[in-house]
């Protein structure tokens, strides 16, 4: 039996939405989108936004927003090779307190995909390249991510002004370029360990505030 669900929201760009209780006591409403953009397989990636209740999403507030690009190894397996996992956990803790939106973009490895990311790791280990040099050695640009998608997701959620949680100035500029007003840029903590020291150094060299 196929059940046709009624429209879930104000925007036709939102395909589905469901409330999901999360460990730690918070609860988030997960949204999926029909928002275009092609992944490497030609299909549009399943980007996700999660709305957390709290003062920042109440009327009169300016929502706290984090744009987080998928990192399977860091987010799911707590890889020490990058700082994605601890950044995601730090963001979730802030959302629990203040409310806000997590935009979880399915653009693994700064947009190059999991296979290429593993190849890039291999180059870093074997040839001593940094994360950006390794991507270039594989024929990619430094960063293949597209923040226009994040802006369209926010617009579908009727969010026009944000306080952005990031150390990456490209993300704030990317949102503003696509019509989202960035009221404030709030840095995340520095999550350094002996395995990601070089990775963080390369990100600093690329202009991240770390
Ligand atoms: Zn990562």
TrEMBL record:
Protein's name according to its UniProt entry: GTP cyclohydrolase II
Species in which this protein is naturally found: Pseudaquabacterium terrae
Start and end residues of each GTP cyclohydrolase II domain: 46-184
First-level EC class: hydrolase
UniProt superkingdom: Bacteria
GO MF entry, a single one: GTP cyclohydrolase II activity
Keywords: GTP-binding, Hydrolase, Metal-binding, Nucleotide-binding, Riboflavin biosynthesis, Zinc
Catalysed reactions, as listed in the record: GTP + 4 H2O = 2,5-diamino-6-hydroxy-4-(5-phosphoribosylamino)-pyrimidine + formate + 2 phosphate + 3 H(+)
Entry cofactors: Zn(2+)
Pathway: Cofactor biosynthesis; riboflavin biosynthesis; 5-amino-6-(D-ribitylamino)uracil from GTP: step 1/4
């Amino acid at each position: 039996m196929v059940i046709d669900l009624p429209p879930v929201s104000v925007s036709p760009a939102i395909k589905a939405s469901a409330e999901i209780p999360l460990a730690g006591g918070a609860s988030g409403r997960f949204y999926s989108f029909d928002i275009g953009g092609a992944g490497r397989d030609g299909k549009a990636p399943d980007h996700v936004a999660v709305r957390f209740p709290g003062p920042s999403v109440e009327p009169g507030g300016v929502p706290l927003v984090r744009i987080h690009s998928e990192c399977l190894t860091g987010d799911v397996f707590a890889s020490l090779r990058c700082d994605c996992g601890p950044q995601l956990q730090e963001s979730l803790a802030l959302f629990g307190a203040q409310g806000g939106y997590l935009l979880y973009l399915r653009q693994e490895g700064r947009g190059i995909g999991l296979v290429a990311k593993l190849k890039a790791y291999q180059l870093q280990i074997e040839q001593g390249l940094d994360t950006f040099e390794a991507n270039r050695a594989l024929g990619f640009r430094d960063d293949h991510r597209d923040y226009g998608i994040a802006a369209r997701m926010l617009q579908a959620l009727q969010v026009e002004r944000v306080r952005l949680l990031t150390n990456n100035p490209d993300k704030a500029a990317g949102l503003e370029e696509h019509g989202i007003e960035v009221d404030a840029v709030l840095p995340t903590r520095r999550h350094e360990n002996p395995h990601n020291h070089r990775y963080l150094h390369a990100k600093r060299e690329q202009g991240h505030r770390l």
